[in-house]
Amino acid sequence: MTESDDIFTARGSVLIAGAIIDGSTVDIAIDETGTIAGIGEGAREAIDVDIIIDGSERLAVPGLVNTHTHAAMSLLRGYADDMLLQDWLSQKIWPLEAHLSGDDVYWGTKLACLEMIKSGTVAFNDMYFFMDRAAEAVDEMGIRATLAYGFIDLSIPEKREAEIKATESLARHIQSLDNPRIRTAVGPHSVYTVSLEGLRWCAEFAKEQGIGIHVHLAETEKEVVDCVAQTGKRPAALLDECGCLTPRTVAAHCCWLDEAECRLLAERGVSASHNPASNMKLAVNRAMPYHWLKQAGANVCLGTDGCSSNNNLDMFEEMKFAALLQKFAWNSPTLLPAGEAVTMATAAGARALGTGPGTLTVGAPADIVLVDARAVCNTPLYHADSNLVYACNGDAVMTVLCQGRVLMHERTVPGEEEILEGAAAAARSLVGRARQAS
Ligand SMILES: C[C@H]1O[C@@H](n2cnc3c(N)ncnc32)[C@H](O)[C@@H]1O
Ligand SMILES: [Zn+2]
Q: CA 164, 167, 168 angle in degrees (round to 5)?
């Protein structure tokens, strides 16, 4: 075994020696359970050091949390672009997804995890299909995930029964894995794809199991207009009536919320996941009203959405898109400053998924990213947050730890070649099967 391989397999306490936090050079001590045991003075003495990572010329930041993904859609990257959301879903994405296999989801999720690790993400909130295979990929890659089966009943009773079974079976499967990094949530896709009965069942099941809810909300104006026409209520009110708005709910997009809906989300303790790149690409024509959500006290976090509407999973780019879109759309250069964008991508995401404080503090899980302080994007280095949000992308990430385990070091992730080959082969096979069937 080479020396560089050791760091991925070694177990024990870790000392990150001399990394930069808030402009100071400090040691970070991580105990053998993967918890931060000390930062700065006295950190070295807090543990019996097994593994040392050189932190010099590295900015230490909390691991990023991607709160809205369809990870295996990495296989659909670039498959269909430049379309209206409804056409894109109904003409391109759903017909291809009809041919998805468990193996596709396994390889797509492996590819997504690889991409996330390489850009500093340690946890994600996923909604897709064949999620037992997604769990296998997450387990192998070493990051955290909350996995939801995408519940879509299209108001067809037989389909609803099938979705209920799939949701229950995933919950049982995730429980049986007993992996603290992997959790499950209920994933009612949206108010336009799930019946009232389906939404109510999802809410009840989530409550009974003590798990979260992951839903798309108010992504387009059409969603709001159609919902009002069909039910007399706006989407957030409808979800609330069905019991879907809880402190463990993550609502993705939230572009077309009105001010009262922002207050409702805050009151219910819902986390709103901002997905600026996807929203701009699909031209949903309104930016999430961040100022109203913030004023109401809602937890606003960040997500990329799937690789078919983004088309990557780089949360550094997403922080920049969020900060720029908010300023541009609401005509306010002071809205969503860099520090807040970092908080959105870290602490707010961790709060949404319940993965810890999402900060570098003693007692927190050691989900730590080391960014190259010598990279072009960090030169000069007046304000770290400014560079992280406005200048860098995920390529500046050098080392990633999740629960104290090293997942990437000096940009090496074990098994990268095999993942790239496996995912490319799965994508070819998926598109081939779809062509044959049409
Ligand atoms: C879980 C389901 O969500 C779909 N999906 C992917 N991106 C979006 C989006 N921006 N809005 C709504 N649904 C989406 C996936 O294609 C899958 O069918
Ligand atoms: Zn989505």
A: 85
SS3 338: helix
Distance of CA 82 from the midpoint of ligand 1 (Å): 15
Give Dmax over CA atoms of the chain in angstroms: 66
- Residue 75 and residue 71: Cα distance in Å, rounded? 9
Strands (E), 103-248: 121-128, 144-151, 182-188, 212-217
Query: Is residue 305 lining ligand 1, measured as CB closer than 6 Å?
Result: yes
User: Any idea which fold 3-62+365-416 has?
Assistant: Urease, subunit C; domain 1 (2.30.40)
How far apart (Å, rounded) are the C-alpha atoms in residues 105 and 72?
A: 5
Distances (CA, A) of 271 to 54, 108, 149, 303: 36, 26, 19, 11
Instruction: Tell me the pTM.
Output: 0.98
Which of 216, 307, 311 for mutating ligand 1's site (highest number of atoms within 8 Å of CB)? 216
Q: Which ligand is nearest to the CA of 304?
A: 2
Supply the CATH classification number for the domain 64-353.
Answer: 3.20.20.140
All structural domains of the chain with their residue ranges: 3-62+365-416, 64-353
> Is residue 305 marked as binding?
yes
Query: Is ipTM strictly over 0.85?
Result: yes
pLDDT digit string, tens, across residues 346-390: 999 999 999 999 999 999 999 999 999 999 999 999 999 999 999
